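MODEL INPUT / OUTPUT PAIR
PAIR INDEX: 1
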Amino acid sequence: MDDWLKQFQQDLETAVNATLGQTEQFLDELAEQAAAVVSPMLDAADELADELADQVMENVAPPISQALDDFEAQIDPVVGAAVTWCEQTMAPLHQTLTPWLQNHPKCAGCSYYHGESYGGEMLVCALHPTGPEDYDVCPDWDSVWPQPEEK
């Protein structure tokens, strides 16, 4: 009685293995057929995408580039004027604060103040290259702040 059960198990195992083998073979063939069908479509889509990209570069990019160039040409003077205005507006503040920060308080707010270092040597101003140390108040001090017009 045990023999027929073992035989049944072996037959069942053989049938399952054969079915699995046929299924695997079927799926491999199906994958090959699907690849054969889908591959040309993907190639065509790739060619279409390349063609579309070329058309965009030829037809869309130049007008956009020209528009951006025109915008830049219009905005450059405005930005330049804004930068110049900011520099002019901030100059008195810079000429007032920088001397204090660089330990030249007598020069605060003076229009002659330079305060740049060259070769490790500080040039305070052209009139007093090392600063007006000999004076309590610099005799050449000239306000950087706009003065009201006299009537």
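PAIR INDEX: 2
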Amino acid sequence: MARRTKAWNAERFNRQIGRQPEAVRQVAREQVEKAAEEMKALAQKLAPVHPEAPHIRDNIRIEKEDEYTSYVLVGDENNEYAPALEFGKNKNGVHMDAQPFFFVAAKVLQKRIGQRLRRAVRKALKATWGGTK
């Protein structure tokens, strides 16, 4: 039986967080930045290093799209080494052993990042609006 998973909806999050007080928006911005830095650090730690190959860990970077959206990227448009390393085959069909590092890091951190963001936003909302507990 297939499981359904709820996809991340950045537009919905931006719309909802945009209606909140500045203190709550600031907490959300900080958590998004912290999550991107944590993802980058773990991907760099897991990335393989070969003496004769380009160092893929040096090409892992963060790009911000807006206040609440950051992307962790590997390589660039001209660099076909990162996908070949992750999945095991390059564009020309030449086989190489897969050495996954990027999606492993994303999967490991996915739940932790989501929980941390929800917890921080709830705490900020309670502090702002005087909630109980």
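PAIR 2 NOTE: Confidence is low (pLDDT under 50) at residues 1-7.
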